[in-house]
Amino acid sequence: MIKTLTKEQREYMVERIQTYFELERDEEIGTIASEQLLQFMIQELGPFMYNKGINDARQMVEQKVVNLDEDLLSLERPSGHSSR
Description:
mainly alpha, 75% helix, 3 helices, 84 residues, single chain
């Protein structure tokens, strides 16, 4: 999956990992270690986040379909036999 990231995206994420370690853990982490951590997170944690995104999208689409169905039902006109 990391190969699907652009060079700029990968560099940004590596920089963010390095910044996190510096600010939150008062540790310095090199580029190679940051890239390895990023690769690990993508491989091990990425599928969970991806699946959560898919589930959220599915729920949104289902709600849109329910709303669309309700809108279409509201457009129906009464039908029946005409009175003479």
